[in-house]
Amino acid sequence: MKKRSRRFKTLLTKLNKNHFYSPLDALHLMKDLANINFIETAEVHIALGLDPKYADQQLRESVILPRGTGKIIRIAVITQENRNLEAISAGADIVGGEDLINEIKQGRLDFDKLIATSDIMLSIAKLGKILGPKGLMPSPKAGTVTNDLVKTIKEFKSGKLEYRLDRNGILHIPFGKLDFSTEDLYNNLIALQISIDKNRPKGSKGKYWKSVYISSTMGPGIPISMDLLRNQ
To answer: How does it assemble (predicted)?
Structure first.
């Protein structure tokens, strides 16, 4: 049985686990319960009626959060040498070609997102065993394989994020920081809801949304009414 701290148990007494909160009420409560001396991340955990072992029930997409993520991300770009300056000017933190590929092979992973142009993907394929387990392998589905470097880099810098279903059919998505206003967190949450509904896999059958909880990094899960979330 998981051991919980006295602090966490106290927070649970302020939460009605049998009540499904409206999105705004849940966000207010999440912010009210925060009592850690650092700015926590707001997270949403969504169980979907999908079985990711079937190809037509997998869900991996990207979305631009209108109020950003609140996180400063380091972006690495692998491209041909003649596009290095373009990537740097757009805000990339690390830029290279075969040299960067070799550095990654040697263990360099000091970045949060790896973007690549399509003409160099053949060379990057050999990094699959290194990048794949860490979720860093460039993919057209995730929007990280592109020929429009400027647009792509700026989107990820301003709040674009990727989400994907885990093996249990659950999405775990950060959608801001607790120092965001409730309205900003709400706008980000609705953007996620719209994206998840829009990208419902073709193989999805029956009930799509099963449960939704939000929480801060160190806080308890707060159940949200799916009907109120999806009918704003």
So the answer is: Part of the 50S ribosomal subunit.
Q: State CA 9 to chain mean position distance.
A: 28
- Asked if residue 58 lies in contact with residue 165, where contact means CB atoms within 8 angstroms, the answer is yes
Q: pLDDT > 90: what percent of the chain?
A: 76
Q: Do 191 and 65 form a contact (C-beta atoms < 8 A)?
A: yes
DSSP state of 36: S
Q: Which helix (H) or strand (E) holds 41?
A: strand 41-48
For the cut 70, the answer to whether the pLDDT of residue 2 exceeds it is no
Please, what sign has the CA dihedral across residues 123, 125, 127, 132?
A: positive
Strand duo 75-78 + 113-116: pairing: parallel
The domains found in the chain, sorted by start residue, are 6-69+159-231 (3.30.190.20), 75-157 (3.40.50.790)
Q: Which two tokens stand for residue 80?
A: 């041909």
Which DSSP symbol is given to 17? T
Residue 139: which of 36, 85, 127, 210 has the closest Cα? 127
| The token pair that represents 207 in the structure block | 């009930």
Tokens found for residue 131 = 């990048």
3-state helix, strand, coil in the chain (%, to 5): 40, 20, 40
Tokens of 145: 């394989």
Instruction: Output the pTM of the full model.
Output: 0.82
Given a cut of 70, is residue 232 above it in pLDDT? no
173 membership: H or E segment, kind and range: strand 170-177
Structure tokens at 60: 């991996």
Residue 201 vs residues 30, 52, 56, 205, 221: alpha-carbon distances, Å:
31, 10, 6, 9, 26
